[in-house]
């Protein structure tokens, strides 16, 4: 006896269901996008400030290991110190004649080159005696040169301003650390401690 024919029921979305689903996805995307944007900006700032603190540690170590002056400076061309805008990039090199002239020449050796920072972020130095804010030089002892015996701060900001900024404090012995909020006012303090705040 032949089997009865089974009618297959076709299933799918109606136009109304599809429109509701698309609307819900659009609403959720609108709610999540601002938070995701902040997450990306936070990670970018953290990565960039960690890169800088890493090269500062490297500079101090290379100066001690090589027993000579090592220069870390802002550079937009990768060959000499020519700006105070650290977001343009930086170079780290030896200064073989110990002249501290902040130019790669003679037997100087390029140790590190950093491309410009992405995201439109600003990176500026302050302190360090107010001179040569575009460069740091480390002696064979690891101490800073040409800073009038003053510590300094590197401040990294994006378009959200000082409230979300990151900073590095470098003392005269060349030791660096991440800046912290020392006085509890929700703003990082610079190399002057609780009496000084970073600015963008």
Radius of gyration: 26 Å
Number of self-contained structural domains: 1
Shape: elongated
Top CATH class: Alpha Beta
Which residues sit in consecutive blocks of at least 5 with pLDDT less than 50? none
Structural class: alpha+beta
CATH topology title: minor pseudopilin epsh fold
- How many distinct beta strands? 9
Largest sheet: 5 strands, antiparallel
Name the CATH superfamily classification.
minor pseudopilin epsh domain
Strand content: 15-25%
Helix-strand pattern? HEEEEEEEEE
Task: Give the gist of this structure.
This protein is an alpha+beta fold. It has one helix and nine strands, in the order H-E-E-E-E-E-E-E-E-E. The strands form two sheets. It has a five-stranded antiparallel sheet, with helices on one face. Strands 4-7-8-9 form a four-stranded antiparallel sheet, covered by helices on one side.
Please describe the structure with a list of short key phrases separated by commas or semicolons:
200 residues; alpha+beta; minor pseudopilin epsh fold; 5-stranded antiparallel beta sheet; 22% strand; Pilin-like; T2SS_GspH; methylation; membrane; transmembrane
């Amino acid at each position: 006896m032949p089997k009865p024919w089974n009618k297959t029921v076709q299933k799918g979305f109606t136009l109304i269901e599809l429109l509701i689903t698309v609307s819900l996805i659009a609403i959720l995307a609108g709610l999540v996008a601002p938070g995701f944007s902040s997450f990306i900006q936070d990670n970018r700032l953290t990565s960039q400030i960690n890169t800088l603190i890493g090269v500062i540690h490297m500079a101090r170590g290379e100066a001690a290991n090589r027993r000579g002056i090592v220069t870390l400076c802002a550079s937009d061309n990768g060959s000499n110190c020519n700006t105070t805008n650290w977001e343009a990039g930086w170079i780290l090199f030896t200064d073989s004649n110990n002249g501290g002239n902040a130019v790669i020449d003679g037997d100087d050796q390029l140790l590190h080159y950093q491309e410009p920072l992405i995201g439109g972020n600003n990176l500026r130095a302050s302190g360090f005696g107010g001179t040569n804010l575009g460069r740091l030089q480390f002696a064979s002892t690891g101490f800073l040169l040409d800073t009038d015996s003053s510590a300094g701060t590197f401040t990294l900001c994006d378009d959200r301003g000082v409230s979300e900024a990151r900073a590095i404090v470098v003392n005269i012995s060349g030791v660096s650390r991440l800046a912290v909020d020392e006085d509890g006012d929700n703003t990082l303090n610079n190399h002057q401690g609780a009496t000084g705040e970073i600015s963008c």
